Amino acid sequence: MNSKVSMILRILLGIFVLVFGANKLYPGGFLPAPEGMSEAAGNYFGALVSSKTIILVGVVEVVAGLALIFNKYGALLAFILMSISVNAVLYHAVLDPGNIAPAIVLLLLNIVVMYGYKDKYKDLLS
Question: In the chain, what's the furthest Cα-to-Cα distance?
């Protein structure tokens, strides 16, 4: 893949997760809540908030976003971010299919960025 395209997608993913991670850490959030959320989705998200798990997810997203933007430990954080990406897609696929588009974009960007770091993962996969 072209290094310029890879860099742009890496920074785009970094900004994406930085904004959504900061939204999780900001009291009340600064982005509007998605509309049409099912009761089960609301209960699950409420459990994440009350158990403070959402804060951990937000911290990981902010750290991953900064790492990807500044290209420091980007391969490691892209790998860690994959668990959040897959979880977001599964959450929306099962509980909130109407709002799945951002989660799919997150997963696709994460896959493409990880592909850009494929040389860093060779030892891990051999």
Answer: 45
Instruction: Tell whether the model's pLDDT for residue 1 goes beyond 80.
Output: no
Task: Tell me the whole-structure pTM to 2 decimals.
Answer: 0.91
Domain that holds residue 67: 3-30+38-125
Which residues, in sequence order, are CB contacts of 82 under 8 Å at separation 6+?
Answer: 110, 114
Count of domains for the chain: 1
User: pLDDT tens digits for 13-50?
Assistant: 999 999 999 999 998 889 998 888 889 998 998 999 99
Query: d(Cα 71, Cα 66) in Å, to the nearest integer?
Result: 8
